[in-house]
Amino acid sequence: MVNILDLIFNNFELFLLILIRGSGIFLISPFFSAQNIPNIIKIGFTFFISILITLTLDIDLDLLETSYVVLIIKELMIGLIIGFISYAFFSAFYVMGQILDMKIGFGMVNVVDPQNKVQVPLMGNFYYILAFLFLLISNAHHVIINALIDSYSFIPIGGFDFNHENKFLLLDIVSKSFVIGFKLSIPVVIIIFLTDILLGILARTIPQMNVFVVGMPLKILVGLIIVSISIPIFYTITTGVFNESVNEIYNFLNSFIEG
Fold first, then answer.
1. How many domains does the chain have?
2. Cross-strand bridge partners of residue 121
3. In sequence order, which ranges of the chain are alpha helices (DSSP H)?
4. Section 27-42 average pLDDT
5. Residue 209 three-state SS
6. pLDDT of 147-172, one tens digit each?
């Protein structure tokens, strides 16, 4: 315990910068920013990770020509952007759920996300939590920690420079998350569309049938059946989305080396 305290006091400035970068990631990343996790655990975990990284880095901050305040801002921005990238791809499940809710008939129903304390689509929240559990089982949250450690190899302390390439990269990530959510919802959208066509044909052939009364529960039933059938392959889908987010994180880190 004494050695750890000596390390922190002797390298306090370096430790603080490392702590700020890690805090930026854990503030936004879907694995570590959950509101139902006590803040003391988040702080303790970030503190512990920062100590380990401080032990592995040998940086003389006196050689950096940037002021310490600017270094703090740069380190915070790096952490926030890495956390944002991981969260942006997870938002694809909210996009997917919003589209499914509108097609199935749950469009007027929202639930409160216990992690972010905001109203989210019913199916979107279901898929988000399911993906969250799948990735925790596969230890995917370790990849985020590895990305934090690897970030110092790509972007050393004081090496952050937000250029035009980074801006377009982040815009592309946001667009990709929407495209992924839309693609994931296409099978359900097509089947519900065919169901609407079937109901239209029935309405013309059997005018006495109230299509509105029959159609709503039928689309909900069809939608839930499709969702139930798709759950076994959802693990593969979640892994693919997560791998895409990891690739984009390292693309962001690589952009500083290529630049």
1. 1
2. 110
3. 2-10, 12-28, 39-56, 68-104, 122-137, 141-154, 164-205, 211-258
4. 74
5. coil
6. 888 888 888 887 787 777 777 888 88
